[in-house]
Each structure stands twice: as structure tokens, then as C-alpha cells.
Write a structure and sequence with these properties.
Blueprint: H1 11-23, H2 27-50, E1 66-69, H3 82-93, E2 98-100, E3 117-120, E4 123-126, H4 128-138, H5 150-175, H6 179-183, H7 195-217, H8 224-242, H9 255-269, H10 275-283, H11 285-298, H12 302-307
Parallel strand pairs: 1-2
Antiparallel strand pairs: 1-3, 3-4
Helix pairs in contact: 3-4, 3-9, 5-7, 5-8, 5-9, 8-10, 9-11, 10-11
């Protein structure tokens, strides 16, 4: 009787063997392997993300339909990039017909090397803030903020800069400490059979890239305690200005609300504790109510986007959850 032939080792077996091998290396050996592998993967990533691509990306395209190119969904928030979440939220606030570009290659970027970007009638508009400005002019959406006076516009601009240029990079310092949990939020099909392999090296790349960004911005030179104190001051400033208003500038959502929501949603809805999340819970509960209000009004498909990783943009066909009506003292009437 012949013995059964052994089955061929799977890719997962090879990965486990490689992990075992690395675990048995000396600290210097591990550093050498990690550095070499990280360099190879980084160079390959840079080549993929900077190589020429067709433009416009969407061909053929529908006339006057906005195509949104962004990172894939996550299981906690519709996008782990506050700028992608900001742009898509604004498109919904402005009631602009758009379509998410599904299966958009994760290594592709705009002509400026960033995500998100949009395309309209074959023309690319990079950068979330500039895209909002350009689309407002082209699609005649300036009326969304016609009710704001000069002082309100100045304050709104100040808060947009504060939350994206100051609070967000400070929060990044604490988000990177949960890199494994972040990777677990990505769609399981993102890298297919290479998911375990890519996650193995992504931890190093995410941490290194984040530290470099923070260092060169100056924020990374501060101690964690100072970053906590400064971010709490930012959160308190937003909270005090918001007060019991529905949105930052009153009863109508504007582009500053999309920007603020894009960042606060990362702090509030990611499934791990950070000093900023704790501070909001203890000292600024109105910021969580504010995010819930925007989420219920403009993201009725939140569960579908985060649990099924759906990129559908027919959000108005969903029935939004009613937002609570607040009295001047902030109490709910519902």
C-alpha cells in the first residue's frame, strides 16, 4: 500500500516559516531584514504610485457626473483618510451627483501625488480643499454659503486650518500606536492572498511614514504629553464655538462641517481608545452629538459602507435616521 504523497505547502505555510525564521534572529538581524525588505517594498510602492497612468482615469465618462477616486472603505468609518471622508461628505451636503470609482488601484494617485481627487468631464481636480473650491464654481454651488457674513467665513476658514493642519497630525501620533487594529479595518479582499504578507510589512511602513511626516511638520518633536495638551485645547475651542448649534455656522451644513467631521469621525468612531477620544467623551460631548447629526443626515448608508465596504453613492435612496431636536440648553426634545 503506497503512502499518500504530502500536500504542497501553501503560501500561508511559507509566511509562517518566514515569521518563525525572523523571530529567531538577533535584534541586529531583525533590523537588517526589516530595513532591507522595507526598502524594497517602499521602492516598489513608490514606482507604482508615481508611474504614469491614463488620464482621465475614467474612460468613457458620463457628462456632468463627478467621479470620486479615493482610498477603499474601512469597517469603522467610510474612509480612514479624513480628506477622503471630507470630500465625499461635502458632495452629499452640496447635493452633487457623483460616483465612487470602485476597485480604484490603491497605488494610484492624483497628478499631485495625493488622494482623493475627482474627475469631471474628463478633467482632474486634485486635493480635497481645492476640489471643493473648483466644483463650487463649476457647478454653481457658492449659494451653499451665501448666508455667511465675512466674519463667519473667516472663522470657518480658521477652524478648517486648525483641524486639518494641527489637530489631525497630532492625532496621527496616537493613531499609529494602533497600527495592527488599523490594518484589521481594511477590506479582507484588499490584497487578496497577499494580505498577510502585505500587512506584515505595512506596519513598518505606516509607522515610519507617519513619524517622518510628524517630524518634518514640527509636531513630531513635541512630547506626547504636550501633544495631548495641545490637541485638547483644539477640541475645546471647537466645542465651545459649536455650543448648541446644529452646525458650526448655524443650521446649515457647509464645507467647514465636512472638514471637521472628516477628522472628528476618525477620533470618535475608530474602535480604540486615544487621549483625544477620551477627552471628547469627558469634556466635549457636544462634538460627538455633532458627528452623529452629520452621520445621520448625510450618511444613512453608513452601515452599508462600513460593514459591507460598499462604494455605492446612491445614498439619498436610504432613509436617514432622524437627528434629535435640541433646545437652546442642548437637551433633546425627542
Amino acid at each position: 500500500m503506497t503512502s499518500p504523497s504530502p500536500s504542497s505547502p501553501s503560501f500561508s505555510d511559507y509566511l509562517d516559516q518566514a515569521k518563525s525564521y525572523l523571530d529567531n534572529l538577533s535584534p541586529l538581524g531583525k533590523a537588517a531584514v526589516a530595513g532591507g525588505a522595507g526598502f524594497v517594498i517602499y521602492m516598489h510602492y513608490k514606482w507604482l504610485s508615481t508611474r504614469p497612468r491614463r488620464t482621465p482615469y475614467v474612460q468613457p465618462f458620463a457628462k456632468d457626473l463627478v467621479y470620486l477616486c479615493q482610498f477603499p472603505r474601512s469597517s469603522a468609518v467610510p474612509n480612514l483618510s479624513p480628506f477622503c471622508l471630507k470630500l465625499e461628505t461635502w458632495l452629499r451636503i452640496a447635493d452633487i451627483p457623483y460616483r465612487n470609482v470602485e476597485n480604484f488601484p490603491i497605488t494610484y494617485r492624483s497628478r499631485e501625488g495625493t488622494l482623493p481627487f475627482v474627475e469631471l468631464n474628463g478633467i482632474e481636480y486634485p486635493d480635497s480643499g481645492l476640489a471643493i473650491k473648483d466644483l463650487s464654481l463649476i457647478l454653481k454651488k457658492e449659494s451653499l454659503e451665501v448666508h455667511l457674513n465675512d466674519e463667519q467665513r473667516a472663522v470657518a476658514r480658521s477652524f478648517e486650518v486648525l483641524i486639518e493642519g494641527n489637530l489631525w497630525p497630532m492625532f496621527l501620533k496616537f493613531r499609529e500606536q494602533h497600527v495592527d487594529e488599523l490594518l484589521a479595518l481594511q477590506p479582507p479582499s484588499l490584497f487578496g492572498p497577499l494580505t498577510k504578507f502585505m500587512n506584515f510589512f505595512a506596519r513598518h511602513l505606516i509607522t515610519t511614514n507617519t513619524e517622518n511626516k510628524l517630524f518634518y511638520s514640527g509636531i513630531g518633536k513635541h512630547s506626547e504629553q504636550d501633544l495631548i495638551r495641545l490637541s485638547e485645547e483644539d477640541l475645546l475651542a471647537i466645542s465651545k464655538f459649536l455650543g448648541t448649534k446644529h452646525y458650526l455656522t448655524g443650521f446649515k451644513a457647509t464645507k467647514v462641517d465636512a472638514a471637521v467631521f472628516g477628522v472628528l469621525a476618525q477620533i470618535i468612531y475608530l474602535p480604540f481608545e486615544t487621549p483625544q477620544k477620551k477627552y471628547i467623551s469627558q469634556k466635549c460631548p457636544n462634538l460627538k452629538d455633532y458627528c452623529e447629526r452629520i452621520k445621520n443626515r448625510y450618511w444613512p448608508d453608513w452601515e452599508e459602507a462600513t460593514k459591507r465596504f460598499s462604494m455605492k453613492s446612491d445614498w439619498k435612496k436610504k432613509t436617514p435616521n432622524p437627528s434629535p431636536h435640541l433646545t437652546p440648553n442642548g437637551r433633546s426634545l425627542s
